[in-house]
């Protein structure tokens, strides 16, 4: 890796993570920059279309608790978890930022045949092996699409897991769409929801009114419960760096379900949750785009499931309800670790 690339990367992450000034100053020091560079690992991934590289960065060092973070989207970035650095290292918990193929600092090939669930599961397994993670230390955390990917990984490779965290993700996309259209949508002013549904009916997603209405009536209530001008810089940066090719191919354009024809259409793992036997924490936000009652039900279906409700949280509960999110997550990680001793 060229030093200039690392300097650019470090500047970007420093800017987006809202760390205290003394942390920024230490990162800028030569010794800490060396450690920063050493914590980054570009991992070669084998795919049906050849070899590509994906970005990972380790934060902390704990031989017993290593949490690999699966971001959402598909096509979002690891910056979704920038504020984890403000909570987990202080508890001695190691975590790993990771950009999936097609995202941010990882390679971004333009080939839709790569955007399948099974290929992403295979990618996660290759990342696990490259990082030396195993059943004695490997916790997999996934939020939104990352939660879906976490479920799929566990169904294929749970023998490698010490614990699983499914955050803000229902086990059925049809149920998600029903909740969005029958519960969340009608909470908007009637004329606003009607206009949004008309835009969707006409497949007119390039209409600027669609994002305008969502930005005023949906995102600040169910994605991150803060006014848009108060959203963290790292989340705005993540949204700006989303890979639309991956996102649209797999999910589509709609914010009220999966666009017909998108590759994730019809995904449903409700009947398979009982097969996941590793300790699993399911996290929900009261104001989430995902039905918290469904997520609580998921925790009951999982043989070793636990449920964490963030009462002030939405889809990004780590930002709008950190007071409940992080203590609950940390407690789960330490509890599982203690039982394994």
Automatic annotation (TrEMBL):
PROSITE patterns: PROKAR_LIPOPROTEIN. Belongs to the peptidase S33 family. Pfam families: Abhydrolase_1 (PF00561). Keywords: Hydrolase, Signal. One of its GO terms (biological process) is proteolysis. The active site is at 144 (nucleophile), 288, 315 (proton donor). InterPro entries: AB_hydrolase_1, AB_hydrolase_fold, AB_hydrolase_sf, Peptidase_S33, Pro_imino_pep. Residues 67-322 form the AB hydrolase-1 domain. Residues 1-22 form the signal peptide. It comes from Algoriphagus yeomjeoni. This is Proline iminopeptidase. GO terms for cellular component: membrane. One of its GO terms (molecular function) is peptidase activity.
